[in-house]
Design goal:
This protein is an alpha+beta fold. It has a single domain, classed as Riboflavin kinase-like (Elongation Factor Tu (Ef-tu), domain 3). Helix content is 23%, strand content 33%. It contains five helices and seven strands, in the order βααβαββββαβα. The protein has a six-stranded antiparallel β-barrel with strand order 1-2-6-5-4-7. The longest helix has 8 residues. The radius of gyration is 14 Å and the shape is globular. The two termini are 18 Å apart.
Length: 137
């Protein structure tokens, strides 16, 4: 039996710097190949209020290779917000501090859940080894 590790995190929705849609669109084919996800062009930024680097050190992430040289590798972990499946992603070339996680999904999460900056939100983040369970949820 596979050990399925996960973290239940709480944070606050925050605005990004406006580049999420550009980069998601740039990596779209790479996300489709590596994650099996056709992402909505944009990310939901969540401020956890603490250094979340331990998540990336303790869970086994999926590596998404850049579409061309000069861009960085993106690491992804399966995640869930309410009943919306997606991934938290972290680029090796991000400008965000370790307190910010970025969530991608195939839907516009803000409008689907009626979220605004400052709203509290809960996220469950899974180890990549949990993918078979994650897909069944």
């Amino acid at each position: 039996m596979v050990e399925c590790r996960s973290y239940r995190l709480s944070g606050v929705v925050v605005s990004g710097v406006g580049k999420g849609s550009y980069y998601v669109e740039l990596y779209r084919d790479a996300f489709r190949r590596a994650l099996g996800l056709d992402p909505y062009p944009g990310t939901l930024n969540i401020d956890l209020g603490f250094d979340a680097g331990f998540i990336w050190r303790t869970l086994d992430s999926i590596t998404v290779y850049p579409p061309n040289s000069g861009l960085g590798i993106v690491y992804a972990l399966p995640a869930m917000i309410d009943s919306i499946r997606g991934y938290i992603v972290r680029s090796e070339k991000t400008i965000h501090g370790w307190n910010i996680i970025e969530f991608i999904s195939d839907v516009h999460v803000r409008s689907r859940l009626g979220l605004r900056d400052g709203d509290s939100i809960k996220v469950i983040v899974y180890d990549r080894k949990c993918m078979c369970l994650y897909r069944e949820i």
